[in-house]
Amino acid sequence: MPPWPRSTKTAADPFCASVREWIALIPVGKVATYGQIAHLAGKPWGARQVSWILHSQSVKYQLPWQRVIGAKGRISLPPGNGFVEQRRLLRHEGVKVDDRGRIDLKIYRWSTEGEFPAR
DNA sequence: AGTATGACGTTTT
DNA sequence: AAAAACGCCATAC
């Protein structure tokens, strides 16, 4: 049983707001994973919700949605226009992405170590 | 209310 | 290494 607190979702809720803030902080040329953002926002198990927030609110809040990828260093979109667009945007920012959408997290993962000591 | 789906992640084959 | 099986949680229908 998860000892974790259960919380809400809507656009106004703290978790959503926190997710948006963290995503907005990802520097150009770096990437973060869904799970990483969920963790930073206080919900370690909320990776799927992060993807939902990106899908539904990235335009409205002008989020750098292209900088959020899967935990294995892979673009998580199904093959298609979105996938190609994300790959293009990341390459344009200086991130090396191979044709299958793989990114070397050792190099490009955004690390908050030292910058945000409180988490 | 119950089921299927998803821009996920971890564990097991 | 790669794919499938699970677990998770919010949405869409």
Describe the structure.
With 119 residues, the protein is mostly helical. Strands 1-2 form a two-stranded parallel ribbon. Helix 2 packs across helix 3. The N terminus is likely disordered. The structure holds a DNA duplex (13 and 13 nucleotides).
Question: Which class best fits the helix and strand makeup?
Answer: mainly alpha
Characterize the main sheet: 2 strands, parallel
Mean pLDDT: 89
Q: How are the strands of the biggest sheet laid out side by side?
A: 1-2
Order of helices and strands: HEHHEHH
Question: Overall 3D geometry?
Answer: globular
First-residue to last-residue Cα separation: 24 Å
Taking pLDDT < 50 over at least 5 consecutive residues as the criterion, the unreliable ranges are 1-8
Helix content: 25-40%
How many distinct beta strands? Answer: 2
Relative strand content: under 5%
Number of helices: 5
The quaternary structure here is: single chain
Indicate the radius of gyration in whole angstroms.
14 Å
